[in-house]
Every structure is written in structure tokens, then in C-alpha cells.
């Protein structure tokens, strides 16, 4: 089959780009372990307050794990518990969150922490807080009349 | 008469050998646009915590 030289060039270019993009995403997923922030763990949504670690929301130092701190959040209409938290700069933190009632969002604005909290499921995300500043947590899943008032704050301090 | 007409039509079709330069340019323009947007979004993802 005759093919124009230019056609060969752009076919190689296109297929090459596709392979490059998919390889990058594949390495990121299977080698670096980047995955969606959910959700193999379940919790009884009616007994969240009695269930570990949600009986003590907030930042806790932990030993012998891949991360230094666990930041536990409980969401309910229309607030997060804790409402404000301070995280030391450079800390590797496992954010663990769930909801007591309906589906809520958990977006730390300006970061990659962006999860959906579903009743009965635990959403988790591990990251290193390596930029100081104040970060607003907002609900980005419409959850009711007070949805727009639902927020919390993380302060990353030295 | 009829034969002669057929012949002339045939000739005009054959002489056409179009250039693909414009197509190549637009394919690469679109390609680079896609690469730049993809890389910038991926960089944003990697840079933020």
C-alpha cells in the first residue's frame, strides 16, 4: 500500500504520543501507586462516633506506619469535625474521612486532596504537606440547604 | 466524439497530485496543543500536594 511520507510522520507522531501518555499514567498508577482516594474500608454510618479512628477526629501522631500523622475527619450536614487543624510543615499525613449522613465532598482547595465521602465508606488519601499556608476545605457535593456553609480549615505551619 | 470526451476527462483526473503540507502543519499544530495542555495539567498534578 502506498502511503504518503507525511502520513507516516503524523501516524508515528500520534501513536507515539498515545503510547507516551498511557505509559505515564500506567507508571503513575501501578509503579508509583497513585489511585483514587477510596474505598476498600467500610464503616457503619450510624456508629461512626463509636468506631475507631472516628471517635477522635483530628490530627494524631502514629508510629510504625508509612505516614507520620493521621488526620481524621468526620463530615455531617453541614460541617466537618474538626473545624480547624494545624499540621506541621513537611509531615506525611494520611487523611482519613467519612460521613455520618449523606454524600459529602472533601476538597482541600488548591491541592490534590479531593475526595467524595459516602456514608458507609472510608475515604483515605496520603500526602506530604510540603507547602506552608492556610488551606480551605470545602464540600463539593451538593448535600442540602447548608451546603455552601460547609467548610473547614487546615493550617500548615512550621 | 464520445470517445474523445472520455479521454480528456481522464487526463484532468490524473494530473492532480495534491500537497499535504497544510495537513501536516495542522496535524502538528493540534498535536503540540494537546501535548502542551496534557503536560501542563500533569505538571499541576505532580506539583501540588
Describe the structure.
The complex is a heterodimer of chains A (158) and B (49). With 158 residues, chain A is of the alpha+beta class. Chain A is built from one helix and eleven strands. Chain A folds into two domains: 1-35; 41-157, Cupredoxins -  blue copper proteins (Immunoglobulin-like). Chain A is 16% helix and 38% strand. In chain A, strands 1, 2, 3, 4, 6 and 9 form a six-stranded mixed beta sheet that branches. Chain A has a five-stranded mixed beta sheet with strand order 5-11-10-7-8, with no helix packed on it. Chain A is elongated. Chain B is an all-alpha fold and 49 residues long. Chain B has a domain at 20-49. Chain B has two helices and no strands. Chain B has helices spanning 2-14, 21-47. The chains are: A alpha+beta (158), B mainly alpha (49). The A-B interface holds A 4, 6-7, 9-10, 13-14, 17, 21, 24, 110-113, 127-131 and B 20-21, 23-24, 27-28, 31, 34-35, 38, 42, 45, 48-49.
Amino acid at each position: 500500500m502506498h502511503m504518503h511520507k507525511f502520513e507516516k510522520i503524523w501516524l508515528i507522531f500520534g501513536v507515539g504520543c498515545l503510547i507516551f501518555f498511557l505509559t505515564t499514567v500506567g507508571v503513575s498508577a501501578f509503579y508509583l501507586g497513585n489511585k483514587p482516594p477510596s474505598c476498600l474500608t467500610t464503616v457503619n454510618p450510624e456508629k461512626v462516633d463509636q468506631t475507631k479512628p472516628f471517635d477522635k477526629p483530628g490530627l494524631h501522631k502514629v508510629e510504625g506506619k508509612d505516614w507520620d500523622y493521621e488526620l481524621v475527619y468526620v463530615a455531617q450536614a453541614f460541617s466537618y469535625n474538626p473545624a480547624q487543624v494545624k499540621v506541621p510543615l513537611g509531615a506525611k499525613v494520611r487523611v482519613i474521612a467519612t460521613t455520618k449522613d449523606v454524600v459529602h465532598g472533601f476538597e482541600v482547595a488548591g491541592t490534590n486532596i479531593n475526595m467524595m465521602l459516602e456514608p458507609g465508606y472510608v475515604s483515605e488519601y496520603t500526602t506530604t504537606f510540603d507547602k506552608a499556608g492556610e488551606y480551605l476545605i470545602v464540600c463539593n457535593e451538593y448535600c442540602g440547604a447548608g451546603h455552601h456553609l460547609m467548610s473547614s480549615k487546615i493550617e500548615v505551619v512550621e | 466524439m464520445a470517445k474523445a470526451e472520455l479521454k480528456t476527462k481522464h487526463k484532468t483526473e490524473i494530473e492532480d497530485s495534491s500537497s499535504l503540507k497544510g495537513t501536516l502543519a495542522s496535524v502538528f499544530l493540534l498535536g503540540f496543543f494537546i501535548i502542551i495542555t496534557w503536560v501542563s495539567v500533569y505538571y499541576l498534578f505532580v506539583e501540588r500536594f
